[in-house]
Amino acid sequence: MNSLDSEAVREALLTETDLFAEIYRDCDPSLPVPSCPGWTMADLLAHVGGDHHWTAALVRRRSTVEIDDATVDMRPPTDQRAAAEWLRASARRVVAVVDAAGPDVPVWTPFEVLRPARWWIRRRLHEGTGHRVDALLALDREVVMAPEIAADGLSELLDLIAIGSRWFAEPLADGNTLTLIATDRAATWSVAGHGDAIAWTGTPAPASVTVAGTAVDLYLLALRRISADDARVAISGDAKVLLTWLDRTAF
């Protein structure tokens, strides 16, 4: 299975945010983050926690349109340890507000369609997870992540690409296909291109290019946190299809 259930997503948002907060509490806030050019660790924390607070405000208002950042207090405390606690609390606020508003209430998303409020919990999970990876890389530490969270992150990314044609221009040309195979769990992602759109399934299929690796390494590749020539992933077929995909699916 490639996706977490809703309760697991909620728990993962809290767990991943706590891990990021622990990293930040003991780091140098001014440390540059190479995978986010121009950002420091303090910027990374402010981005993730600020967007958690922004999301909570959006859902609390049950807004069906984008809300202005200026109407939300998104600033972390200046004290480092207080900022780490602020980050932890921001994730809990998202979950609490979704529960209070109702997980099925329709709210605005950046992808041109309203989605149930619970959609944002999963989005915030994987936004935060990706940036926890950035923090670990900045500190030259090993990326450790539960494979089920990585697998769900990959599924969520494919879901976003499937509904976000204005954001991702023709990631797979018509007739091209991409298959990702997790070597550490029973998970496959088979992706086909249809003009500017894609469709994906969890069923293995022959593909223009196939990539095999652990769920975490496939997720890191999809986020462009490791490169296609990294020894942790094995590529068979037309590597140019993969490189085009990676180039055209960057957030």
From TrEMBL:
Membrane-spanning segments: none
Residues covered by the MDMPI C-terminal domain: 148-242
Record keyword Lipoprotein present: no
GO molecular function: isomerase activity; metal ion binding
Protein name (record): Maleylpyruvate isomerase family mycothiol-dependent enzyme
Domain Mycothiol-dependent maleylpyruvate isomerase metal-binding, chain residue ranges per copy: 13-135
UniProt keyword terms in alphabetical order: Isomerase
PANTHER family referenced in this protein's UniProt entry, alphabetically: CONSERVED PROTEIN
UniProt-listed Pfam families: MDMPI_C, MDMPI_N
GO cellular component, one term: plasma membrane
UniProt xrefs under SUPFAM superfamilies: DinB/YfiT-like putative metalloenzymes (SSF109854)
Source organism per UniProt: Nocardia bovistercoris
Keyword Isomerase tagged: yes
